[in-house]
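re: ur question from the group chat, yeah i did fold both. here u go
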Amino acid sequence: MGYYGNRFMSVKAGGKNMGNVVSFINMKGGVGKTTLCIGIGEYLANFCDKKILFIDLDPQFNTTQSLVNEYDLEEEYLNDYSEGQRSKTVMRLFETQTTLARKVDMPSPNDIIVNLNERMDLLPGSIDLILVESDKDGTKAKKVNRFIRENSLQDLYDFIFIDCPPTISVYTDAALIASDFYIVPNRIDRYSILGIKLLKQVIDRLDDNEKIGIKPLGIIYTMVKDLTQKTMQLKEMFERDEIVKEIGLFKNMTTFVNDLLVGLQGNISSKYKRSRADISSICEEFIERIESYESE
């Protein structure tokens, strides 16, 4: 484990199909987005033999913190993350030219991607993403897509999962422009539709301006506790909304597992019996939904 050496010369093992880029996104926070992103990616990698790249575009960089902790890379990450270096984070994609004499080159995968195990890699996030501002011509919003396409990363991975922030920003646009599909983690509460309506507005805007063609894989209910009469009423009201019908709903969901949220073993779903069963069912449905698009 550790940072990449010169490893990006081989193609994805045994596969001819290009990998898919999937954004995990909701404009409402606290919906279990990062836990679901890591849970699906880790399960597909370690239990389904898929090759996964995580890209952390959330300034809170919770995906990065969870994964470097899981694979004992905290010291290595912190050393490269220290002031003046930042050589191993997604911030490298958003660097801008500050003088006429200094041209900013796009980093290579070897420069910034961290190897977690044989089947999982990470492009780490950074709190410094809060400093990234949009530019007039939209160049920054295309940087992630350019990085993926120019380096043929879809030939190297079965899936590239992007953990997105719950905000409208240049890096939200960057994630959606780079993605083939999106998943919407969502809790059942009275405000659950608000973040999804805002997300749909963002996607429609990008489709109008950039023709991104991103497709919905569906909404996944997360951290579901007992389905009381009140919860069922909220669920039914939510599912009547036309935007929800357009995006679609996964049949499977994640239940509330306290150990997953606060357990000493971290927030990896497969480590806990109940959440492992949830994530296994979701991954099976995830693959089915991807294959249904590919067969069209």
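okk and heres the other one u asked abt
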Amino acid sequence: MRRLSRKKALSLVKELDAFPKVSESYVETSASGGTVSLIAFSAMALLAFLEFFVYRDTWMKYEYEVDKDFSSKLKINIDITVAMKCQHVGADILDLAETMITSSGLQYEPTIFELTPQQRMWQRTLAVIQSRLKEEHALQEVLYKTLLKGGPTALPPRENPATEPLNACRIHGQAYVNKVAGNLHITVGKPIHHPQGHAHIAAFVSHDMYNFSHRIDHLSFGEEVPGIISPLDGTEKITFNNNQMFQYFITVVPTKLNTYKISADTHQFSVTERERVINHAAGSHGVSGIFVKYDTSSLMVTVSEQHMPLWQFLVRLCGIVGGIFSTTGMLHGLVGCFFDVVCCRFKLGACRPREEVPQHMNNLNHHQTPPMAAEAAQE
């Protein structure tokens, strides 16, 4: 009984076979079919090889939502060099509601404004990268994927000790502010804080010593991520006017970065620049200095690195193999049919109709008496 049930199950499985088996005696091979088969197999191998590289690659997915975190602090990373001595300039941050004025966390370091050849080469390279990022926005995704491979964007130190007089001031450090609009400004004089606002003492600084030529080596918001280049990194402004105002209007967008190498809460920003000469007689009022006015966006961007699933890769691979096999089969049949029609139409050697029997042979065979019939007649 077991043997019968196994045979019955095996026969049932054979009946379910959806793939027809053709005997080799019924298969006709040809040179054209072999050529098409070679081309089809080569195309399958090539496309499958390229599809494997697509499977290995990743892409960045952008998702947008409302930023509900309004109570946390916003970190500002600053590294700006001004062409004035440190005792003549002061930097502080004032938010929109004037509830917080801070300059703590910022350090003043005397330095030389002129760059060494190595530092100048770094700045030119950074300027080229910035110009390419403005033209090719997809390069930012490359930076996202290779974060840990990229080096920091800070200005490299000087190769030799400084022998020239220290004529500039490097202001660098971090500051934590509220997530509201604010103003980071660097102007003449040290800031003085009082309950009704703040002021800068500039009475002891000569007007001829005003020089707000500056270089922004690094300016970013949120967590510092190595390899990410901010829009203002490497910016250099040179002025020969003592009463010059530089303004940077920044819109900060909170960004959550999730890749296979790092997960960080950083901030992207866009910037608009403006500079003008302060001339009260001509109606251009204001204060000489560097003003970075920032505002936070209400939207938050989540950037995550995506990878093709294995099942999708297998489905695409099956589609490539099956599609090429079916398409080449149909094309081969159509081309063969076309050639048969053309050869028969123009009576070429490829079309050989069967030979016709001459008419007089037909008549002769028709009138000839079969031998068996003649013998029967004689009997």
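fwiw on the second one: Residues 371-379 have pLDDT under 50 and may be disordered. The helical segments are 2-15, 31-56, 117-135, 139-145, 310-345, 359-367, 371-378. idk if thats what u expected
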